[in-house]
Amino acid sequence: MEKSVIKFYGVGNEWGEFSNFFKAEILIDGETWPTTEHYFQAQKFPSQPEIQQKIRNFEEPGQAAKFSRKHSGLRSDWEQIKDGVMRDAEIVEASPTDSYWGNATRSDGSEGFNKLGRLLMEIREKLANEQQE
Q1: Of 28, 57, 59, 108, which sits 20 to 30 A from 133 (CA to CA)?
Q2: Per-block average pLDDT, block size 10, for the chain (133 residues)?
Q3: DSSP label of 2
Q4: Gene3D superfamilies, alphabetically (predicted)?
């Protein structure tokens, strides 16, 4: 059996929803971010909440990335922790119609189960635990 490979690059291309620039709000530690890119860039400045807020308010993820590259005060341990920043992000199958595998609104008005996202997060956690052993 041939192994399937999903290749993605850019929001407008096939599988673009895997891009950090894909516009889908995420909730991390009680805070909403417009994209994972906004969140990722803001984590470079943990002791500067005003900079994090500015990054969160950018309309486009590219603006957030460009701003953070030019701003001084990058945390000194960024190269050591940057992978972990993305490892903790919530994974959501943002389907507009599937309330079982995705998070589409259910008939009672509640949010979908997001089973696919939850399974992917379980697998991620299992792999991380195996790495630590």
Answers
A1: 28
A2: 76 87 88 94 96 98 96 93 82 86 91 90 86 76
A3: P
A4: YbiA-like
CA distance 38 to 58: 8
* Domain around 125: 91-133
Instruction: Read off the tokens for 108.
Output: 């009672």
Task: Assign 42 to helix, strand or coil.
Answer: helix
Q: Is residue 13 one of the residues assigned to a domain?
A: yes
* Contacts of residue 126, Cβ cutoff 8 Å, sequence gap at least 6: none
Closest CA to 34 of 20, 42, 49, 24: 24
Structural domains counted in the chain? 2
* Among candidate residues 43, 42, 77, 45, the one with its CA nearest the CA of residue 58: 42
Question: Is residue 8 within 8 Å of residue 15, measured between CB atoms?
Answer: yes
